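Changelog-linked ticket: adenosine-5'-triphosphate example.
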Amino acid sequence: MEKTSSTSLARTKSDQLVETLSAAFKSPVSSEATGASDGGGTLSRKSSRRLLMAASPGRSGSSGKNTHIRKSRSAQLKLDLEEVSSGAALSRASSASLGLSFSFTGFTMPPDEIADSKPFSDDDIPEDIEAGTRDHKPKFQTEPTLPIYLKFTDVTYKVIIKGMTTPTVEKDILNGITGSVNPGEVLALMGPSGSGKTTLLNLLGGRLMQATVGGSITYNDQPYSKFLKSKIGFVTQDDVLLPHLTVKETLRYAALLRLPKTLTKEQKEKRAIDVIYELGLERCQDTMIGGSFVRGVSGGERKRVCIGNEIIINPSLLFLDEPTSGLDSTTALKIVKMLQDIAEAGKTVVTTIHQPSSRLFHKFDKLILLGKGSLLYFGKASEAMVYFSSIGCTPLIAMNPAEFLLDLANGNLNEVSVPSELQDRVQMENTENDTTNGKPTPAVVHEYLVEAYETRVVEKMKKKLMAPIPLDEEIKSKVSTPKRQWGAGWCEQYSILFRRGLKERRHDYFSWLRITQVLSTAVILGLLWWQSDSKSPKGLQDQAGLLFFIAVFWSFFPIFTAIFTFPQERAMLSKERAADMYRLSAYFLARTTSDLPLDLFLPVLFLLVVYFMAGLRMSAYAFFLSMLTIFLSIVAAQGLGLAIGATLMDLKKATTLASVTIMTFMLAGGYFVKKVPVFISWIRFMSFNYHTYKLLLKIQYEDISPTVNGMKTDCGLIEVGALVAMVFGYRFLAYLSLRRMKLYSGA
Ligand SMILES: Nc1ncnc2c1ncn2[C@@H]1O[C@H](COP(=O)(O)OP(=O)(O)OP(=O)(O)O)[C@@H](O)[C@H]1O
Ligand SMILES: [Mg+2]
C-alpha cells in the first residue's frame, strides 16, 4: 500500500504537467514525455489532481491532505529502487526535458516553439507543500531553462606535489568516480572531510581544467564548452561578496550584469527584487552584507544571498559547496527545501553536504558517497541503506542514515554489523594490522566498500549511463556552442561596475583619516617653508627641497593605496570572471577610474594649502601647471602600484617590492645625488620622482635660473612624455597580469 502511494505521488508532477500540456497544445515532445513517465498506472492521474487541488494556492485548506502528501513524499524517498526510478526523479526529469516546469522562482517556460505557446495560468502553479505557504511570494516569468543532463564516467584527478626536501610525488585525489544527475534532481555529495567533494564539484562545474584530470564529463552528451559558463551557477564554500553593498544592491548588480541582453533594465531589477522575496530576504534587504570588519547580515542570510546571486540567472546547472555548513538544522532544512524547489523548476542541482540531519537527508534524490577519493555509493539516496545492508552493513541501533553513511566512509564499524565476507577475510589473513579490538581497521573497511561497489554496481551503472538522453539533437548541441554570452554590452558593464565600485568604496571616499593625513602634512610643510624666499640661492635650494618632497609624497601615497586594489578583490574577480559576468577590460577600466575622483581631490586640497603657505610662484599659470604635474605623477605612480599588486597578488610581497622600488626611485630622483656613475644613471629615467621634480622646478624657476640645484630647467616635453608612457605602460602590465591570473585556485 505504501508502495502504491509513493509511486503515485512520484508521478503526479510529471503527469500533471503532461496533462495540462496536452490540453494546452499538441506537441511531439509532450507525447514522448508521456511515454517516459508512462507505466505510472491509472492511479497517478487521480492523485495528480488531488495534489493539484491541495497544492494550489487558495485551494488548499485541508491540513489533512497536506499531511498525507508530506508523508507520501518521504515514503517516496524511502522505497523501492525500480519503482522510484521511474517515479519522482524521472517525472521531474521528464518534465524538465519538456523544458516546462514550475520554478521556485516562479514559472519557467519551455524552450523554443513550446515557449511561444500558451503557458499555464497562475492558478495551475502548484506550491511546494512542505515549504509552507508562499502566497505572498511573487511569481514571474523567466526565460526558458535549458535542461542539462550531467554524466560523468571514471573521473580521476591527480595532483603533483613538489616538495622542497622530499621528492616530487603524485597524489590521487579522485579515483574513477561515475555517476549522473538529471534536470529535476538534487544530487548530494557526501563524505568525510578531505574525501574529495569540493574537488569533484569543481571538476563537474568545469572549474578545474588540468591535464591530470581523467575520465569523461558530459553535459547533454557534449563536452564542456564556454557557453556553459552562463548556464552554470556555482556557490562556493566561502561566501565571496562585497561587504559594503546591501543585499538589495548585491542582487541588483548581479542581475544587471548577468541577465541576458534581451531583458530590459526594469525587468532585470524586478528579477532581483523577486529573488529577494523568494529567498525570504526582504527583512534584511537594506542591510549591508558585512565582512570581517563590518557587521552585516547573518551567516544564513549571507549564504542565501550567495545562492540568490547564482539563481538569479536561471541556471540550468547549480553547484553548491556546503550550502548548509555552519547553519542550524532548521535553516539548513530551509535551504535544502529551496534547492529542491529549484530542481523542480527543471534545473540540475549538485551539492556537497557535511552533516545532514535525517530530515534533510531524505530530501535528496541522488547520493554520491566518497571515501578517500573513491566511490562508495552512487544511486538514489533512498536506496543507500538498502544497498549497504545488501553488502552486510546495517546499523545495529536506530541511526540517522547520514551519520551511518559517514561512519562507513570513515571506515568506522562501531554500532554497525560487520559483513561476514569481511570478517572471514580478516580472519583468513589473520594479520595484526587488519584488526583493532577484533574489528577490521578503517583501511580494510574502506577497501572492502570500494571493492563491493566496483564488483556489484559499477558496470551496471556505466551501461545505464550509455543510454542516450531524451532530448532533441538541437537542444543537445546548444551546449556545445563555443560562443560566450555576456549579459550586458561593454559600455554597460563598465558603467555598472563603475557605479558598483563607487558604492562599495563610498566609505573610503569620505574617510576623514585620509583627509586629515593629507591636510596635516600640508599644514606642517606650509609652516616649515612659511613664505619661503626664491630670490636668494639658499632660498631657492630650500624651495627645491620642498618641491622634491611634494614629488615623493604624491608617488608614495598613491602606490601604497593602489597595490591593495587587486589582491583585495582577487576572490571576487575570480568568482565573477569564472561566471563570465563581465569582460576583464571593462572591470579593469571601471576599477581604475572609479578611484580617480578621490585621488585627484586630495592633491588639490594639499596644494591649495602648501602653495600659498610656502609662497611659491604666484601666478595662476604656475599653480595649475603644478597641479597637473602632480596629477600626472599620481596617475603614473598608481599604475606602478596596480602593476605590482596584480603581478604578485600577495600583499606582503607587493608592499616589500613597492618599498624597495619607491626608495630606488626616490634616490635616483636627482635631489640627493647628482653625480651618478654612467652604468646606473639610466635608472633615473624610470623614476617618476625625477620627472615630476624636474617639471616642478621648470614651472617655478624657468624665468629665474637655467639650473636649480644641479637640475636643468629646460623644455619639459620629455618628462611629460615619460610620465604619460608610465601611466599607460604600467596599467597595461597590470591588465596583462590579471589576464593570466589563474581563475580557480584549485580544488
Ligand atoms: N591542489 C592540491 N594539492 C594538494 N592536495 C590537494 C589539492 N587539491 C586537493 N587536495 C587534497 O585532496 C583532498 C580532497 O580535498 P577536497 O577539498 O576536495 O576535500 P573535501 O571533501 O571537500 O573536504 P572538506 O569536507 O573538508 O571541504 C584533500 O586531502 C586535499 O588536501
Ligand atoms: Mg570541501
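Closing comment: Example verified and attached. Confidence is low (pLDDT under 50) at residues 1-141. The first helix runs from residue 2 to 24.
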